[in-house]
Amino acid sequence: MHTTASQADLDLAVSEFRSAFSEIAKGAAAREYHREHLFEEVKTLSELGFGRLRVPKEFGGFDVSLPVLFELIAELGEADSNLPQIFRGHFTAVEVLRHTLPSDAATRWFTEISAGAIFGNAQTEPATPGAGYQLSTRLKHEGDNYTLSGRKCYSTGSLYSDYIRVAAMDDDDKHTFAVVRSRTDNVEHLDDWDGFGQRLTASGTTIFTDTPVEEHGIYNVNEIAAAFHAPFVQLIHLANLTGIARNVLSDSIGLVRGRHRTSLHGLADRPADDALVLGTVGRISTYTRTVNALLTSIVDILHHADQRFERGERDVEIYTESYVAVSEGQIAMIESVLASATLLFDAGGSTALRSGTNYDRHWRNARTLASHNPVTYKPHVIGDYRVNGKSPVNFYAT
User: Fold this and answer.
1) Closest Cα to residue 168, out of 178, 159, 155, 158?
2) Hey, which of 13, 92, 115, 173 has its CA 20 to 30 A from 335?
3) CA nearest 206: which of 168, 166, 153?
4) Per-residue pLDDT tens digits for 212-264
5) Alpha carbon 62 to chain centroid distance?
6) Is residue 74 helix, strand or coil?
7) Arithmetic mean of pLDDT, 316-339
8) Is there a single domain that holds both residue 26 and residue 138?
9) For residue 107, is it within any domain?
10) pLDDT score for 266
11) Are 185 and 286 part of one and the same domain?
C-alpha cells in the first residue's frame, strides 16, 4: 500500500534534487576528465526518488507534468550532462509503461520503480539498416517462460541499471520489448563506449545469452504510444543540451570575472571591462535564452499532446505535430549550443584551454548529443510534412 505523494512531498523532493545537483556539479569536470563512473551519483538520485517523477501517484510516484520533468532534466544536465542521458532509458521506459501496460504489469513495474529501481536501455544493434529493420536479438518461448539472446550497442545507462528494456523480435517477427535483470550472469556489460563526448554514460555493448525475461516483462507499444515515444526520447536530449548551454553561460561569466591578462589589442585593462569580451558573453547569453525558450515551447506542445492522450484521444496527428516541433527545436538548439560552446573560448582566451578546466567537454558533449537521431535529416522531414503532409517515419510503430 503506497502513501500518495502530496505537493509538499514533491516540493521537498525537488529541493533535495537541486541540492544533489549542486553537489554533482562540483566534481563534474574532474570526473569526466579522469573517467570516473557515476554509480554513486545515480544511487543518490535514485534514493531521493528522481526515477519516480512520472510514476502515477497511486503507485508511489510524484506523477509530475512533462514541463516539471524536463526542467529538472535540464537542471541535471547543467550539473553533469552524462546523467540525463543515463536516465534517458529509464524515463522513456516509464513513459511507455504509462501508455501501454495493463494494470497487473503496471502495478509490478511502477511499484519497483517507486522503490528505487532504475531501467536501462538496449535497442540499437551494430550494422543494421534504417527504419523497419529486423533485429537479431530474439525472444525464445519455453513453456510459460521466455529468454532472449542478442548483442546490443549504444546501450546507454544499462551498466548503472537494475533492469534493462530490450528491443527484440518475437516468434511472429514483430518488434517487441522485453524486460530483464541487469545484474545476472546472463548479461555481460562491456564498457567499451569510446566516443569523445558523454564519456560516462556507459553507452557501450551489452550481450544477452539466454537471459530470462521477467514476469510481466513482455509488451508491445501501441500506435499512439509509439508516436509519442519518438518526440519524447529526443526531447530528453534537447533538455540536456539546454543544461549544457546554461553551464557554458555560467562558466563564461566566471572565466571573464577571473581573468587578469588582456590582449595586445584589448579595449580595456581588464577583460571584465573589455567591450568585445563582454559582447561575447552577451552572445552566449542570447543563445542560452533562445535554447531555454525553445525548450519551454516544445515541452508545452508535448505536454498538451500528452493531456489529450490521457483524456482518451487517439489521433496520431497529435504526436506527428509533436515530432515536427521537436525536430525544429533540434535544429535551432544544436546550432545555438555548439556556437556557445565555441564562444566560451573567445571569452576565456588561452586560460580556457588548460586541460584541467575541461571546458572542451561542453562542445564534445553537445556534439555527441547532437549526433543522436542525426539532425542533418530533420530539415527534409519538416519540409516534407509542411509541404506534402507526409508524416515522419516512426520506427517504434514498425
Assistant:
1) 178
2) 92
3) 153
4) 999 999 887 666 666 678 899 999 999 999 999 999 999 999 999 987 767 66
5) 19
6) helix
7) 91
8) no
9) yes
10) 59
11) no
Residues 228 and 215 in one domain: no
Number of continuous H segments (helices) and E segments (strands) in the chain: 11, 7
Considering the domain architecture, whether residues 271 and 387 belong to the same structural domain is answered as: yes
Same domain for 317 and 385, yes or no, is yes
Sequence-distant (≥ 6) Cβ neighbours of residue 88 within 8 angstroms: 121, 156, 157, 233, 236, 237
Q: Using CA atoms, how far apart are residues 185 and 163, in angstroms rounded to an integer? A: 14
Is a pLDDT exceeding 60 seen at residue 154?
A: yes
pLDDT tens digits for 56-92?
999 999 999 999 999 999 999 999 999 999 999 999 9
Q: Which domain holds residue 88?
A: 7-117
Q: How confident is the model at residue 306 (pLDDT cuts 50, 70, 90)?
A: confident
C-alpha cell at 389: 503532409
CA 131 to chain centre: 21
**1 belongs to a structural domain:** no
Is residue 306 located within the same domain as residue 272?
Answer: yes
Q: What is the spatial distance between Cα 27 and Cα 23, in angstroms, rounded to a whole number?
A: 7
Let me know whether 391 and 243 are in one domain: yes
Query: Is residue 370 a part of any domain in this protein?
Result: yes
CB-based contact 293:300 (threshold 8 Å): no
Q: Residue 42: give its domain's CATH number.
A: 1.10.540.10
